[in-house]
Design a protein that fits this description.
Number of domains: 1
Shape: globular
Helix content: 25-40%
Number of strands: 10
Order of helices and strands: EHHEEHEEHEEEHEEH
Radius of gyration: 20 Å
Distance between the termini: 43 Å
Largest sheet: 8 strands, antiparallel
Structural class: alpha+beta
Length: 253
């Protein structure tokens, strides 16, 4: 896609948000789900994840706030800039840069289900990335989807404000996009069913994705072939498929 020449600073604010759902089947012998969530999605690991996302879009981390919760769950927020400052980051410098950058930020919150139903636990992670300037949040779509390996994904993208081209004409969307899926890789499009709900004139874009195929090994914390009979495996896959479809359509049976 050809880049537009803008006049001065790009004043558009671009906000990208994800709700990612991952389902796990909990057997009667399964006692480590909470430990699994805590070890995989604790604040330190999420901080590393967000830092990688920040670098993937060409940004630098200015400041980090993170917190683990009891009995489980975590939150991390990063203040980011578009280029690495030459001098070391101090608290005063970080505050000055954050003010100048109009609060570009990246954050994540996790919501593990505390009371699984029918032996299925639903884990949700929400990620929000808001930037101004030349950074495009859409660059991280495939990276986030790959990292979380989610079963159902809600993606929202909103553009606010305006900028101008070199002739002074107002621009309200420099990506010239119609759908979020235009920025997804071929492998993601192959693996997921996709629905689009957009208001392009208002610069509001919404996409929902559902994994097409279920592999039971991806939904058990410690998968062993002899944990479930063949009939039980088939039933668990049916139950997972029903839960995933309900999350995808926002409708219960």
């Amino acid at each position: 896609m050809k880049e537009l020449t803008l006049f001065g600073f790009n004043n558009l604010t671009k906000s990208l948000s994800f709700s990612l759902y991952k389902l796990h089947h909990i057997t009667e012998q399964e006692t480590c789900y909470n430990q699994y969530i805590k070890s995989r999605y604790n604040a330190d690991n999420l901080n590393r994840l967000l830092t990688n996302i920040c670098h993937a879009i060409g940004g630098s981390v200015l400041n980090v706030a993170k917190q683990d919760y009891q009995p489980q769950g975590a939150s991390v927020t990063l203040m980011i800039s578009e280029e690495m400052p030459e001098e070391p980051i101090t608290k005063a410098l970080a505050e000055a840069l954050v003010a100048h950058l109009d609060k570009s930020h990246l954050c994540i919150h996790t919501y593990p289900e505390e009371s699984p139903q029918d032996n299925i636990a639903i884990f949700r992670a929400d990620i929000e990335l808001s930037t101004c300037g030349i950074i495009s949040p859409l660059k991280v779509l495939d990276h986030v989807i790959e990292i979380f390996d989610a079963d159902v994904i809600d993606i929202d993208y909103r553009i606010r404000g305006m900028t101008r081209n070199k002739e002074g004409k107002k621009l309200f969307n420099i990506d010239q996009m119609e759908n979020i899926s235009e920025f997804l890789s071929e492998s993601v499009i192959k693996d997921y069913a996709i629905k689009e709900y957009n208001l392009p004139r208002q610069n509001l874009f919404h996409t929902k994705l559902r994994r097409k195929n279920i592999t039971l090994a991806n939904h058990l914390i410690e998968y062993k072939g002899n944990n479930l009979s063949i009939d039980d495996q088939v039933q668990v896959e049916i139950n997972l498929a029903n839960e995933i479809q309900q999350l995808f359509t926002s409708e219960t049976a």
